[in-house]
TrEMBL record:
It comes from the Bacteria. It is an enzyme of class 3 (hydrolase). Its EC number is 3.6.1.57. This is UDP-2,4-diacetamido-2,4, 6-trideoxy-beta-L-altropyranose hydrolase. InterPro entries: PseG. Keywords: Hydrolase.
Length: 335
């Protein structure tokens, strides 16, 4: 297959989730000797450059482009290097950008999540949280859990039994835009001062000095990992995880890690409801307010019970093959 081109958004406001999802597809493509090229603005490039496993080509997006100008530029880059597909991952792409990017036989792919309004302009729409949908004559719909895109590290996970895990892990995404990490850590530490805690902050997290100052005042044994490069190791060694809902919950399901999922965006509701229904996760709606005391109570209650029961409920429900499945569909569309 010819190269894959990615136009992805990442920032301190949107976090790194879109970039990590596209990275999963690029890793799957690499296993088939298909190169990947990322078209990134300065902020997204900064996030990507902080990963030790990043070795994909980046082309800098010119600043100040109008929507159609950006599309024309994307299309020209893809045509020049013979791209097989352009993958758009982000919630704010304009219709004019998508339409203007179309060039020759290049397949347009949109990571949708139910948050965009431009899906009618692409060839393949991907939404792992949506119910399966029959393809039309013009479009392929990669809907449903089989199209969850997880990085290569999760394909090699064998879930540890709870007896071999220790403490809890807290990770609220690449940027934690609602700034929940510090107050959540304080609420849990106040209730359980001896509980071992791993706190993970993403590459776009902006309150590192405040977090370190907070940790210094707490009695708990706390390990802080910034810009973690191996989340499978973190999730697979935690008795219980507290995570922002979204892509991370699929990682947690793959690791069979009992979890408390914090909903911080409306488009996370359906997938989170499914995880709760499956029996391995609890959830809290934090879109408008964060019930810190209730979350801390839930942590204590879960730790007082048999977490192996919750872990067992997740086993076999998740896998890390979604990127490979999507890659095959992109290849089929090129035939």
């Amino acid at each position: 297959m010819r190269p894959l081109f990615f136009r992805v958004l990442a920032s301190t406001q949107t976090g790194a989730g879109h970039l990590m999802r596209s990275l999963a597809l690029a890793q799957a493509a690499e296993s088939y000797d298909v190169p990947s090229v990322f078209l990134l603005d300065a902020e997204a490039k900064s996030v990507a450059a902080k990963r030790h496993d990043w070795h994909y080509k980046i082309i800098d997006l010119p600043s100040g482009l109008a929507d159609d100008e950006e599309g024309n530029w994307i299309g020209a880059q893809a045509k020049e290097q013979g791209a097989a597909a352009i993958i758009f991952d982000g919630y704010t792409f304009a219709a004019d950008t998508i339409k203007a990017s179309r060039s020759g036989h290049c397949t347009l792919v949109l990571m949708d999540d139910g948050m965009t309004h431009v899906s009618q302009f692409v060839d393949i729409v991907v939404d792992p949280a949506a119910s399966p949908k029959t393809d039309s004559a013009q479009q392929r719909f990669c809907y449903g859990p089989e199209f969850r895109l997880l990085r290569r590290e999760f394909a090699e996970v064998s879930p540890n039994p709870i007896s071999q895990r220790n403490g809890i892990a807290i990770s609220l995404g690449g940027s934690d835009p609602k700034n929940l990490t510090i107050p959540l850590l304080e609420a849990i530490a106040k209730r359980m001062p001896n509980l071992p805690i791993r706190v993970v902050t993403g590459p776009a997290y902006q309150r590192l000095s405040e977090l370190e100052a907070c940790i210094a005042t707490l009695l708990n044994p706390i390990q802080h990992i910034h810009n973690c490069q191996d989340m499978s190791e973190v999730w697979n060694h935690a008795k219980l995880a507290i995570s922002a809902a979204g892509g991370s919950q699929f990682e947690l399901g793959t690791c069979a890690t009992p979890s408390i999922l914090l909903i911080v965006a409306d488009n996370q509701q359906e997938a989170t409801k499914q995880a709760v229904k499956e029996g391995w996760a609890h959830s809290f709606d934090c879109v408008d307010r964060t019930p810190l005391a209730d979350i801390a109570n839930c942590v204590q209650s879960l730790l007082d019970n048999d977490l192996q029961v919750l872990s067992d409920k997740a086993k076999g429900l998740y896998d890390a093959e979604g990127a490979t499945r999507l890659l095959k569909i992109i290849a089929e569309h090129q035939q």
